[in-house]
Specification:
The chain is an alpha/beta fold and 472 residues long. 31% of the residues lie in helices and 21% in strands. The protein has three domains: 3-150, Rossmann fold (3-Layer(aba) Sandwich), CATH 3.40.50; 161-289, Transcription Regulator spoIIAA; 414-471, Nucleic acid-binding proteins (OB fold (Dihydrolipoamide Acetyltransferase, E2P), Beta Barrel). It has helices spanning 12-27, 51-67, 78-82, 84-88, 105-109, 189-193, 201-213, 248-258, 276-284, 301-307, 313-326, 345-357, 385-408; strands at residues 3-8, 31-32, 41-46, 72-77, 93-98, 146-147, 173-178, 197-198, 218-223, 263-266, 291-293, 331-338, 362-367, 414-422, 429-433, 438-441, 450-459, 462-465, 470-471. Strands 2-1-3-4-5-6 form a six-stranded parallel β-sheet, sandwiched between helices.
């Protein structure tokens, strides 16, 4: 039996796309391989948010070709959409399929004239006839099919639950939105994922209830621009909340009202989409994780304007303070970028001071990476790499101090968590609290169980707790 392997790079949305592709391959009769070296078909589902992401994808292609020269290597995802010619020129690449055609990938890789369980040697010449004309190709890639078209004409949304590594029995992630209508000056994502589009309410509720029926107790919903969910839906949808346009808070309320899910966790939502209604909804329901991830990018008004972000520092500050007032124990995280073109020492200090002032419990700190075709790539006064790296270090150190302080605030308290997996130490179990803190429990417990534990201390960035008082 022929086998496949999907290697995902980057964000949860990419992982969700990969999960859908894996399901489609299995429906066609292929077997999932343990790793790329054992597969007949290897799909590299790429990211392109930074130059480093591109480099990782190219290195993976070379590694797969070296270790498994007989494999059909298919490159898809955001990098494939942005620069298909570059990828098609790499040795070993059989085809490049952009996000515009990702929903057709399995049919393109396994067309009707090739049996879906053909042995590896039969994959040598796919013989595709559907090929978008992208102009002149390098001579060494002329025979390699490229399937890429206008991403803004793309309306499909791949969706399948993503299960987290070793924790296959807990916390699946469901992508409910894709694409982005914003045009941040540094970001290439709208040009590789297209316009914002939403999974229908009925489909989301069905997917969540199926996960509940399968025994899952916490589900994470995510998207490229999650807070914009529903803006593209027809109001005639029976679950699209009457004649008014659908909004993200409507979806959250519908999940609470129409599913039996025990815990809903919301991934990243832009600051302008944290409405008073959404904050009240999250704060008021014990079935929603006390967790708000609110991208910040910069605390400088001048930098935010150059970034074309749709909020000002005072708007951001006000929303974070509202979230903390409504949820005193909530995890509050942010994405922050350093080294944006023209960022002065004074502008960086505005960001550092804002982070110091606000009640963040963790940060994702990124250094600006120039993306071809974006306005920021052509901006003057690019920040020297050593300066940007030092700013990155300063913010990471600040984030570590804030996170450590937040952890220590729970020592001596009794809290709830969901078990994830047993650690290498036979007598302990990893868990995650409602407010996104790692926890090690001194007991052997099965995954996917709610526990209440007494927190004894902090060790290696995690809470350490005694045996649970109760297990439900």
């Amino acid at each position: 039996m022929a086998s496949f392997y999907v290697h995902n790079f980057g964000c949860r949305a990419t992982q969700a796309d990969g999960a859908a592709l894996e399901h489609q391959f299995e429906l066609r009769g292929l077997e999932r391989a343990a790793d790329a070296s054992q597969a007949n078909v290897v799909v590299l589902n790429t990211c392109t948010v930074t130059a480093s992401a591109d480099q990782d994808a190219r290195a993976a292609i070379r590694r797969v070709h070296r270790e498994n020269p007989g494999a059909r290597i298919v490159v898809t995802g955001c990098y494939a959409q942005r620069s298909p010619e570059e990828l098609a020129a790499l040795p070993g690449v059989a085809s490049v399929i952009g996000n515009s055609h990702k929903h057709e990938l399995v049919d393109l890789v396994l067309p009707g004239n090739i049996p879906p369980i053909a042995p590896a040697q039969e994959f040598a010449n796919p013989g595709f006839v559907r090929l978008e004309n992208l102009g002149q190709r390098p001579a060494n890639s002329a025979h390699r099919p490229i399937f890429v078209s206008d991403i803004f004409a793309h309306t499909e949304l791949l969706a399948a639950p993503v299960f987290d590594g070793a924790n296959q029995r807990t916390r699946p992630n469901l992508k409910v939105q894709d694409g982005c209508d914003n045009r941040c000056s540094f970001c290439v994502i709208p040009f590789v994922r297209g316009q914002s589009r939403s999974l229908s309410p009925a489909r989301i509720l069905n997917e969540i209830e199926s996960l509940v029926s399968a025994g899952f107790r916490e589900v994470v919903i995510s998207g490229i621009n999650l807070g914009r969910w529903g803006r593209d839906l027809e109001t005639s949808d029976p679950l699209a909340f009457g004649s008014q346009p659908s909004r993200f808070e409507h979806l959250v309320r519908a999940i609470l009202e129409h599913t039996s899910l025990e815990k809903l966790r919301i991934s990243s939502v832009e600051p302008m989409d944290w409405s008073d209604e959404l904050i009240a909804l999250v704060a008021g329901s014990p079935r929603i994780a006390q967790h708000a991830h609110v991208p910040m990018q910069s605390g400088s008004d001048a930098v935010l304007r150059r970034m074309h972000r749709r909020y000002r520092p005072w708007h951001y500050r006000e929303n974070i303070q509202k979230i903390r007032a409504a949820m005193p124990d909530a995890a509050i995280g942010a994405d922050v970028m350093v080294g944006f073109p023209g960022e002065t020492d004074a502008e960086f200090e505005e960001t550092r001071q804002m982070i110091e002032d606000l009640p963040f419990t963790y940060l994702h700190v990124f250094t600006f990476s120039s993306r071809p075709g974006t306005p920021a790539a052509a901006m003057p006064q690019q920040v020297p790499v050593p300066v940007a790296r030092e700013r990155n270090r300063i913010l990471r150190d600040l984030a570590d101090r804030k996170h450590e302080s937040f952890l220590n605030s729970f020592v001596g308290r009794t809290i709830q968590a969901i078990t994830l997996a047993r650690t290498n130490e036979a007598a302990s179990t990893e868990a995650l609290t409602d407010n996104y803190l790692k926890l090690r429990i001194a007991a052997r417990l099965d995954p996917n169980e709610w526990v209440r534990v007494d927190v004894q201390g902090v060790e290696d960035g995690a809470l350490v707790a005694t045996l649970p008082a109760t297990v439900s």
